TrEMBL record:
Residues 167-269 form the Pyrroline-5-carboxylate reductase dimerisation domain. Residues 8-103 form the Pyrroline-5-carboxylate reductase catalytic N-terminal domain. It catalyses: L-proline + NAD(+) = (S)-1-pyrroline-5-carboxylate + NADH + 2 H(+); L-proline + NADP(+) = (S)-1-pyrroline-5-carboxylate + NADPH + 2 H(+). One of its GO terms (molecular function) is pyrroline-5-carboxylate reductase activity. The keyword NADP applies. NADP(+) binds at residues 12-17, 74-77. NADPH binds at residue 61. This is Pyrroline-5-carboxylate reductase.
Amino acid sequence: MQALAGLKVGFIGGGAMGGALATGLVRSGRVAPEQVLVSDVCAERLAELSRVLGIKTLSDNRFLAREADIIVLAVKPDQIRPVLEEIADLVHPGQTLISIAAGVPLAELQRWVGKAVPVVRVMPNTPALVGEGASAYVLGSHAGSRDAGRAEALLSAVGRVVRVAKEELLDAVTGLSGSGPAYIYLVIEALAEGGVRMGLSWRDALLLAAQTVLGAAKMVLVSEEHPSVLKDRVMTPAGTTVEGLFVLEERGVRAAFIEAVKAAALRAEAIRLGRNGKGGKD
Ligand SMILES: NC(=O)C1=CN([C@@H]2O[C@H](COP(=O)(O)OP(=O)(O)OC[C@H]3O[C@@H](n4cnc5c(N)ncnc54)[C@H](O)[C@@H]3O)[C@@H](O)[C@H]2O)C=CC1
Ligand SMILES: O=C(O)[C@@H]1CCC=N1
């Protein structure tokens, strides 16, 4: 991909999300393994990423900050400030800083780095690991089209990406697609348990449940039809599907998902506004 050609992409934090992005990026083939660096405080994690991906790993965030053109901050939200302050004197306007931390506002990121460097805030999700991520981003005040191009190139290599008009919308994104994979794992587990309850082996039931979710998602993306139209095509009058759907509506599953997204989005907002009443930022 042109926007990443010849650039080095460095991840500070190679955990669940940073590791997923680095892995998805290398596996996409859009960058060579030599273009990707990961620094982390956990030696075992670094050894694993280096062994599996053939990328350069290091325990020195400052070395990474000197080497990388795109620096992805992928530590827990409460580690973002110390990490930014650690590298602040090294970063320069030729670089693009990307923060994936939930609820850490652009204004704070910019203040902690303390100079006019481009910052982009991104909310990705873990299916980036398998090239099926869903991400949204917003540009900070010093970021421009070059930085948007870099962010889009990176995120589109590992899935789909949208740009949101204002930072507050990243709270909604966090509640929907950032946290969303966990909701869908719950759905898959529950569907499979339903299959087991009706006599299927767990192995068969899990495969059928997961493939059904994958297939339905693909239908929505490929057909571009409204989900209700696709739903109607599955329903036979007085058939089986309408009986199942009736139970889901009766139990309030639709409202439960709407409320789940809202609750997670409000939590992201509370973290962003510093009203973090739960003893941690993540
Ligand atoms: N896990 C998820 O589904 C998503 C996470 N995020 C965001 O991604 C960020 C990372 O979250 P996870 O990957 O889930 O956490 P994690 O705990 O799996 O990964 C964090 C990594 O940072 C490393 N680390 C800690 N301090 C460090 C330091 N000073 N320098 C370098 N590395 C350091 C840890 O050893 C660990 O490997 C968070 O800010 C979170 O809000 C965003 C979207 C989705
Ligand atoms: O649960 C969390 O706070 C993070 C952000 C989105 C997904 N995981």
